[in-house]
Every structure is written in C-alpha cells, then in structure tokens.
User: What shape does this take?
Amino acid sequence: MTEFRQHPESLKLLQTMREAAGKSRTLNYAEFIRHALYDSAHGYYHRDIQRVGRSRETDFYTSQSLGPLFGELVTSAVETLLNNFHGKELDLKTWTLVELGYESDSGWWSNRPCPFKSHQQVGPTDELKLSGKCVVFSNELFDAQPFHRVVFMQKQWYELGVDVSQEIAREVILPELSPEVSAYKNRLPLDAREGYTIDLPLQTISLLRSIICQTWTGLFLALDYGKTWKSLAYEIPQGTGRAYTKHRQSSNLLDQPGRQDITCHICWDWLEEGLKEADFQEIRLESQEAFFVTKATSCIEQIITARPGEFDPQRQNLMHLIHPSTMGQKFQVLSAFRD
Assistant: This one.
C-alpha cells in the first residue's frame, strides 16, 4: 500500500477524520471522501476558491466552463426533447430549469433573458426542493459523490479503507465489508484477476433517489462521465478513482485531503435502473457528441455557418464539446421523462 505526505493545511481535516473514525482510526473510502470533499470546515467544496474554469488557478474545467455556448446547446436540446416527447411545440416559459450541483456563474444565456420560466440553481450542499414542471439538469454532479473501493485478493473481495491515525493517510484492507458494500456484494464478479480494483459509486443511487422521489414532472437530464457495470467490473483493473488539482490528474486519492477534487466514473446501469423503477419513460443514454448533434441541430448549424472562412471562437468551443477526441465521447448524456 502506498503512503502520501499531507499538505499542512490538511492536518486539521485529518484530525476531524480521526474523531469520526473513533477507536479504529480507520474510515472506508466513501467516509474518507465525504470528509475530504464536504466537511463543513475544511472540505474541498467548502473552500472559498474558484474550483472550476480554464485558468491555471482552477483545478479542472467542465463543458459548462466554455460559457454561453454550452447553455445555448443545452437549451436547444431540451426544447427538442420536450417537443418530441409531447408531440408538439412547447413554450419553455412554462418550465423551470433546475440546475443541480451549481458551482459558479456559467453565463448560460449571455446578454439575453432566461428562456425558461425560472432558473433554479442548487449548490452541492444546498437543500433540494422540487415541484411542478421541471427540467432537472446536472453537469458532472454524479461523479462528485463519495465512492467505496474494493479489491479482489486471494479469491475474494475485500473493501479498502484509509488509516487516518497518523499525519500520513494510509490505504488499508478493512476487516469486513461496510453495510453499503455488503448490500451489493452479490453483484461483484465471482472471479477476477488478483488485485482487480473496483470503485463503487453507490452514493449516486441515493442521490438519484433524492431527486426523483420528489413531486415534480418533466425531463431528467444528466451529463457526466461513466461506464457500464460490465466495463467497471471486468475491463478496468485499476479502478476509475482519480484526484484533480490545478488541471493535473492523479491516482493519489489520499494526498492533500480537502485540497483536491476526488471523483470516479459513475455506473450508468444503476441510474437507468433507478429511473425505470420510478416510472420514467424514454430513458436514453448517448454520447455527448451524439446528444448535441441530434438534439441541438439548428443551434449547431447557426454556429458553423455564422462566420465562414475565418476563425471563430464559438466554432472552436463547439468542436471541443462534440469532437470525439475531446469531450464528445468522454462524456455521456442520460435523459428521461416523467409525466
């Protein structure tokens, strides 16, 4: 197991973790990540910094970092989805856009009015209240949830955890599976190569339930990066958990708790199952490229033809969003309806 020396400003957070761990001084990965990201005093998402953007001072950027273009594409795609589902043209002014996981002003519609009835922004730690006709939208929300980590050793699965007893966080094998992992034990492969690691995004299931259990109708739309369960369980032996700081990706999840983002690929199968159980219809998963090309066609055509023969930053940003070698295939879009 690998050890990592911590940044001095992370020591207070480690002390909080020790107090939460009790006598064992050990947390499972989900508990460690929950403190590292969401601790009210020292967690990453409570730091007074700009985390998202394309400048060197931020830690990572998302599709939304590209500014108003992204909002225009999403709005165009939402309009297409709503019209197709209801079989007629609808007025967006009768719908509320609820943006989950809101981080900072993304300049959605530049200098023009919001095309929806209202735009409700819900931050990572805000209370969620949904009702009425909504477009519930998220961009890289589900991958920001704590996850468990398991490893296959000596013909069985063990859960990994973090020893926080010292100033150096250390990965350890837990003596038993946590209740959350035990509930999904039967889904784990019966056999795997020695050392095969799976990062289990179980918190995404409870997050989805908290969204869809409320009394709203309309469109669920999640942009994120994930894999099928088959891919997570059989094709990625090192797991998908990664940390990000200053646009650098690292596999050192224990380094600098509270000072780096920690994320993993979500399992799309689990979200699709949850939507089906809640009676959502027209459940569809597609690449970000396919989603925008087929659902925001008119918007894309306007951008491509706006300034022929000359450099156009809008066109450049568009290609970054939909090109297969950049964000087009890296991200996927899950959409579903409920009447």
About this structure: The longest strand covers residues 216-224.
